[in-house]
TrEMBL record:
GO molecular function: galactosylceramide sulfotransferase activity
Transmembrane annotation, as ranges: none
Stated family: Belongs to the galactose-3-O-sulfotransferase family.
Cell compartment(s), UniProt: Golgi apparatus membrane
Name by which UniProt lists this protein: G3ST2 sulfotransferase
CC annotations in GO: Golgi membrane
Single Gene Ontology BP annotation: glycolipid biosynthetic process
UniProt keyword list: Glycoprotein, Golgi apparatus, Membrane, Signal-anchor, Transferase, Transmembrane, Transmembrane helix
Keyword Transmembrane: yes
Topology versus the membrane: Single-pass type II membrane protein
Keyword check for Cell wall biogenesis/degradation: no
Amino acid sequence: PKTDIVFLKVHKSASSTVMNILFRFGETHNLTFAFPMGGGNQLFYPRHFLARFVQGFSPRRPQHFNILCHHMRFLQPEVQKVVSRSAVYFSILRNPVQLMESSFVYYKGASAFSRAHSLEEFLSHPYLYYNPANKDSHYARNLMTFDFGFNPNGEVSAKRVQLMLEAIEASFDLLLISEYFDESMVLLKEMLCWDLDSVVSFPLNSRDSSTKSPLPDTIVEKIKNWNRLDWEIYTHFNRTFWERIDRDIGRERMQQEVKALRQRQAELARTCLQGTGSVAPKDIKDSSLRPLQHGSAKILGYNLKQGLDKETERMCRRLVTPELQYSSALYKKQFPQKHP
């Protein structure tokens, strides 16, 4: 199994669920994480990543960490200072239309969104609300482009798009697609030589469907145009994702693998969860399992079954522990003398 990993955690793209997978694997195999200084949740995002943002990094005695997975704005030369040369790099992408809709709800407090009453209103006159100079403006336009380290307000020329795609291809071994999460996990499992249980997960940090509504076609087109760079990244890597499946696995075997993954997930849900799925924040009985609530989104969580034996309880708890709580528990374990 590969144990040196860089995951670029792109916002609002099922990346908290992927992070939980990395946390569990790292904890089980006693790996070290590149934590933000002081145990925060972001590596001084939205600034470009620097090696010195990592707790315990020293240029005089460069130490390599196994897993780098907290939110950062990608800058490869700096990332290479904290991980081994053989590290596997991967990230996850989401359709920019759903990504924008999700960001609008989740980052409603951001300067670009706070005055717009609806996404529609924002998109009809974006420059009334959007100022690229504001330090939180990245949430409102080409968020994936920004997270990969590029300028979200750059011109959309064929040449520039080409260079951006080539740069991403040169840096990353695999780009997952959040709309095909299970297929993504199969590809990830193959690339990392992990077993099935290592990539099984329950969706984390997802929001209640009561705040979601289908978008009219006119809005969809406006979102694509406004986030043209993200759209170019997404469509390119969605295509290469399926090319890779055809080349490395084949559709038939992929179907079998996905089926096995879903069966295992259902089995774990029956073992671990009260009911079979996620519940509203107010219904989560154990406050240590309550995810952070943000913007006007309702972030769902889980209730564990009572009376599980110790070993099962521990496994189940790891599966449903929200990102912030899990991150801070692992930080305390890795740096027992420092408390975030």
